[in-house]
Every structure is written in C-alpha cells, then in structure tokens.
Amino acid sequence: MIDFTRKKDAGYIAYEYREVMVAEEFLSIYRDSYPCFGWEEDPNHAASEIKDRSVSHRTKPGTDRGRRVIYFRRNRNISNKAELTRLQRNFDSCIQEIEELNRSKTTMGLTAALVVGILGTACMAGSVFAVTAEPPVIWLMVLLAIPGLIGWILPCYLYRRLVRKNTEEINPLIEQKYDEIYTICEKGNNLLI
C-alpha cells in the first residue's frame, strides 16, 4: 500500500477521491485496473468496512441491486494526469459497452418470447369467447385454441434459441472489448513508470 516513511519524508500528499458504482461481476476488474490510472483503494473506507460489515457501506441506498461502490484515491500531483484521466474514461466506457452487450444477449429473445406469448394468450382468449358464446362456435374455438397453445409453449424454446444465437454473435465483441481494456491498462501503467 503506502510506504509511510516515504510519506513523512515527502511531506503532505494531497489526494483526489472517486467513488465508482460497479456491477458485482466487474469488481475484480475495477480493483485490478484502476491502479493502472494512478488510483488506489481508499484505505479509510476499507477500514470502516472491516469495522462495520453492514451493507450500507458497500452499496448505496436506492441504487440497483447487484452493484457496489468502490472508493479510490489518487495523488493530485501525479504526472500525466490528463492522459491517465482520458485512458480511465476509455476504460469506463468499455466496461459500460460490455454491460450493454451482456444485456443485449437476452433482449431480443425476451421480446420475441413475450410477443409470441401475448399472441398465444389473445388466441386462447378468443377461443374461450367462442366457446362461451350463445350458441357455442366449436370450430372457431378449436381453430383459435391450437395457435393459442402453440403461443404458450413456443416462447420458452424461442427464448433459448435466440439467446444462444445472440450469445454466439456477441461473445467475440465482448472479447474485443476486454482486449481493448487490457491495452488501455497497459498504456496507463506505462505512463506511471
């Protein structure tokens, strides 16, 4: 962490602070990558988390579930600060794009499954109205019940198929974003040396 003897010799060190809201799946990558931009985890917040293990220190109230706040600090007098900040913004946008790509894996499948399910429900409702009409229209009930049942069974398989297809298309894009992140972190780390 910090060499306190160097701190005493160097005098006062002014820090800038940053808190980052992170999805739990990206906690490790943030903790590993932010030091490449000159940030270190704020030891003051880490100490308060150890003392009080309540959730309020790790998640902000009123925020999304599955997201946590990580607290960082950085020396204000760090060299190449503008370039490091630019690289950090690129890193943040890459993570955001990865989150959006992960969400897009299921969006199309969910939409298609919901539309087919709603259409199946509408056909089944028409079938019920046809059988409860005076006099009952049995041929219309059968005609509407068949697509209604198909519309109730098909969404599960449709969802799985579309998610699998989208996952195969999107995973290479996600891997490209991770490669971009590693390149950004390498550039940031070289600026700190």
Characterise this structure.
By secondary structure, the protein is mainly α. It has two domains: 4-78, no CATH class; 101-192. Helix content is 67%, strand content 10%. The protein contains five helices and three strands. Strands 1-3-2 form a three-stranded antiparallel β-sheet. The longest helix has 55 residues, at 138-192. It is elongated, with a radius of gyration of 27 Å. Mean pLDDT is 86; it is low at 1-6 and 50-60.
Query: Which consecutive residue ranges, at least 5 long each, have pLDDT under 50?
Result: 1-6, 50-60
Number of helices: 5
Which structural class should the secondary elements be placed in? mainly alpha
Strand proportion, as a percent range, falls in 5-15%
- Total tally of structural domains: 2
Largest sheet: 3 strands, antiparallel
Strand order of the largest sheet: 1-3-2
Share of helical residues:
55-70%
Compute the number of strand runs: 3
Q: Overall mean pLDDT score?
A: 86
What is the subunit organization of this protein? single chain
Output the radius of gyration. Answer: 27 Å
Please outline what is shown here.
This protein has 193 residues and is mainly alpha-helical. Helix content is 67%, strand content 10%.
